[in-house]
Amino acid sequence: MTTNAGTVRIGARPEAEVRQAQAELEAAAARPRRQTALTRGALAGYAWATGRAGAAPVTGAVSTGPPDLADLTAEIDASVVQLAQQAQRRAPRDYVRGVHDALSWVCAHTDDRP
Q1: What digits encode the pLDDT tens for the residues 23-48?
Q2: Which superkingdom does the taxonomy of this entry point to (predicted)?
Q3: What is the pTM of this model?
Q4: Which of 5, 23, 45, 50 could serve as a FRET partner for 101 with CA atoms 20 to 30 Å apart?
């Protein structure tokens, strides 16, 4: 989490925007048969980005608080490697894709929010 001219940011986005996206996805996932591996991955990405998870969702790197932009980007890179290495993937492909999509949005690599 960083502060930029008085605005707290998670990755490249305002904290409130990330927390809103997380809350909306949590609400959608709470509906029957709506939680998929993709959704679980995105929620894990948001939880780690906001400091609510103690370990990175793909690498398992332990963190003591919200990750900074460099840590978020490194986790995106790790998810790309995991997606490319089917035989050595540690988690289901859709889960890793969800993490990738959420963190890519948090870092403003895309405007497509999961």
Answers
A1: 999 999 988 777 899 999 999 999 99
A2: Bacteria
A3: 0.90
A4: 5
- Which tokens hold the place of 87? 């035989």
Whose tokens are 């990755």? That residue is: 11
Q: Is it the case that residue 63 has pLDDT exceeding 90?
A: no
Residue 65 carries which side chain, given as an amino acid letter? G
Residue 61 to residue 114: CA distance in whole angstroms: 23
Query: What residue has token string 């840590």?
Result: 71
> CA–CA separation, 55 vs 43, rounded Å?
13
Residue 37 and residue 94 in contact, taking contact as beta carbons nearer than 8 Å:
yes
Least confident of 31-40, 60-69, 85-94, 97-106: 85-94
Burial 28-42 (b: 16+ CB within 10 A, else e): eeeeeeeeeebbbbb
Rounded to the nearest angstrom, the gap between the alpha carbon of residue 111 and the centroid of all alpha carbons in its chain is 14
